[in-house]
Specification:
The protein is mainly α and 197 residues long. The chain has one domain: Tetracycline Repressor, domain 2 (Orthogonal Bundle). It is elongated. Keywords: DNA-binding, Transcription, Transcription regulation. This is Transcriptional regulator TetR family. InterPro entries: Homeodomain-like_sf, HTH-type_TetR-like_transc_reg, HTH_TetR, Tet_transcr_reg_TetR-rel_C_sf, TetR_C_31.
Length: 197
C-alpha cells in the first residue's frame, strides 16, 4: 500500500496568510509577532526568523495582497473590455456588475485587509509608498477600459474609474451591501461620461 505524501504548508506563506487574516479581523494593530505565530500554530520566534521584523512581515503581506488583487482585477477588467467591444449605445454592463459583486462578496477578507493598509498608509510614509505603487497598478488596469469607453485622458480617467470602484467597495464593506442597481448605474454613467459626443 502506497501512502500519499502531503507537504506541510510553507511556514513563511502561512505566516503571511494568517497575518492578512488578522488584519482583516482586527486591523494592523492586531498583528504582532505572537498573534501571527499563535494563529499560524508555529513556534515563537518564527516571524523574526522569516521576516526579521514586523515591518518585514507587513511588507510581505502587502506584496501578497497586491498579487491577489491584481489577478482578480485583471479578470474583471477583461470582462468589462469584452462587454464594451460592440461599442453600441446600449452598453451591457450586467456581466461586469455580476463579476464586480462576486469579487466584492467572495473576497471580503482580502478587501478588509487592503482597506486597513490603505488607511494605515495615510500615517506611514513607507507604507504609503508601497500602497501608492500598488494603486498605480490598478489604475493602469483601468486604462484600456476607459480608452474603449472613449476617454481622451486615459491615465486620469483610469484612476477615476479605480477610485469609483474603491468607493463602491468601501460602501459595500462598511454599510449595507451595495444594491446591484446602484453599482450598475454608477458604472454605466461613468462609462458614458467618456463616450464621444
Amino acid at each position: 500500500m502506497v501512502r500519499a505524501v502531503t507537504t506541510p504548508p510553507d511556514r513563511r506563506e502561512l505566516l503571511v496568510e494568517e497575518g492578512l487574516r488578522l488584519v482583516a479581523e482586527g486591523g494592523l494593530q492586531a498583528v504582532t509577532h505572537r498573534s501571527v505565530e499563535r494563529a499560524a500554530g508555529v513556534p515563537h520566534g518564527s516571524v523574526t526568523y522569516y521576516f526579521d521584523s514586523r515591518e518585514g512581515l507587513v511588507e510581505a503581506m502587502v506584496e501578497r495582497l497586491v498579487e491577489r488583487c491584481r489577478a482578480e482585477v485583471s479578470e474583471i477588467a477583461h470582462r468589462l473590455a469584452v462587454a464594451m467591444a460592440p461599442r453600441d449605445a446600449q452598453l451591457d454592463v450586467e456581466p461586469f456588475v455580476d463579476a464586480l459583486l462576486a469579487w466584492m462578496d467572495d473576497n471580503r477578507e482580502m478587501h478588509l485587509a487592503r482597506m486597513e493598509f490603505e488607511l494605515a498608509a495615510v500615517r506611514d510614509p513607507r507604507l504609503r509608498e508601497r500602497m501608492s505603487g500598488a494603486a498605480a497598478i490598478f489604475w493602469r488596469l483601468c486604462v484600456p477600459l476607459v480608452l474603449a469607453a472613449g476617454s481622451t485622458e486615459p491615465e486620469r480617467d483610469g484612476r477615476a474609474m479605480a477610485s469609483m470602484v474603491d468607493g463602491l467597495l468601501l460602501d459595500h464593506l462598511a454599510h449595507e451591501p451595495e444594491r446591484r442597481d446602484v453599482i450598475a448605474v454608477s458604472i454605466r454613467q461613468m462609462l458614458r461620461s467618456w463616450a464621444p459626443d
